[in-house]
Amino acid sequence: MPTCVNELLVLKSSLSMPLNISKILWEGPGTISNPTSLNTTVDGAKNGDTYTLSVTDMQGCITSNSISAVIRPVVNPAFDEFISICKGQDVTLPLVSKNGISGFWSPAFDANVSKTYTFTPESDQCGSTFDLNITITDAGPDTSIYICKSTDTAIDLNTLLGKNVNPNGIWNYSGDSIINASQFDISSLNVGNQYFYYIINDPKCKNDSSLITIHLSKNHAGNDSNITLCSSSRDYVNFDSLTGLRDDTGYWIQHTDIDVDLTNTSDVDLSSLTPGSYSFEYIASDGICDPDTAFILIELVKNNVAGPDIYLNQCIGAAIDIGALVNEPFNGGIIDNFAMIPDINNNLWNTSESEDGSFFINYIFKNALPCPSDTAVINIVLQKKSFAGYDTLIHFTCEKISVSLWDYLNPNADMDGIFYLDNLPIQDGKYVIENTPNLTFKYIVGEGHVCLPDTSEITFTKNAKPLLNISAEPKICTGECDKIIINSNAGNGSKIYVTILGNFGQQYKSVFTLSDTINQSFEVCAKETGPYDFNNIEAGNIYTIFIDSPNGISE
Coil, strand or helix: which one is 141? Predict the structure, then answer.
């Protein structure tokens, strides 16, 4: 077997009588691996080099033999370097190269797949290996690739084809041919799956195409958003609506001076935040694409309130500082005299010329948008001064008298007061006076009112009881009249109530007013036929004449 260049030269020998040998030695150029062995190798041998084997026996006799090395050069097999065939075409690969080197091919030939086959020379051939590319005229297999849109703006579509695909095809996207497939702009494509077709139109082979799916990805955090909220309506905010559509694989961050629970971003409670500016960030970071950030700025505007409604009672004549009615922390608003109440100047009201009644004024706190203005109602009730009437002195002469104190008040007096006797209230203003020469009742009106109460007195003074008697004939004949005489020193203008009561229940009444004379008389006649009255009574009966009080109590 020949030795090829760069291979080890093999030296082999044999002896007929090895027992009589005392020494063996190989000599020659290159590096002999084991020169004292009958069989050895030489590294670096060249064609034509001579190698001598010397053998010394036990008697010291030397026998030598020389050989010349034959080193053959390595030859590259000659084949067509590129073969293009139709898919499924039957092809037999040659086992001998064009320059006479025999060998075998690996792997086994497959007419359906573009592949590289290697030719290996036989062991007795000084030849090198050879790679043969056989291209199947098709568009290659369907394939897909993930690309980040934010990172790549243009791609070489040809790099997405399978190995050894026929390069003479055309690219198609959305029904349009692609002119420059090596620099295809993807910046205008939407995120998601985009479909490209690589089409082979070969005159020898049938047409073929492959589907190349490009999965365009991009992290999308949504939109930046700046909103202004009123501090009174900040309790729950939908952060999801602030960013709009976004990837749900991201996360929220907030600055260290904010402590807001972002567990449920569709309903974020901001009630713990004071008025001011607050920034939040939503970061979408997933897969091969660069992170994307949406910035959310929330401006909380202070919502000033006008405070609670105010109610004030005042007496007419008071000077009212309306602005002073508003207490901290509600100062800063304006007074609105919407009802055009007169005598209010620079928020000062001189009520000396005002009528009594209930008056309304608005206190308005105007806020910056989006906070609404707030209004508190100031209700001022002006009350007139109470009037209990004038002191009154009442003279009476009866031993017992029932009075309604209301009858003795001045007609212009306020009627919502209370009567007192010795600091005790008189229920309903009614009282029975007896065995008392003098009583003074106090009438107090306006107790508990804003205005000071007013008091009047009603004094009852008992006069000495006047003399009073009546004289009459014990008998009046039928058809006759008799004069009845009343004797009294009660005084001019005094009233005397007289009742005539018959034994069968007949009753006749009359009232007499005394004049300056002491005696007052009236005439009574007895009649058989009616009509009957105080001065004409029915004959045949017994009558009793009474002096009565106005309320019918006999005296």
Answer: coil
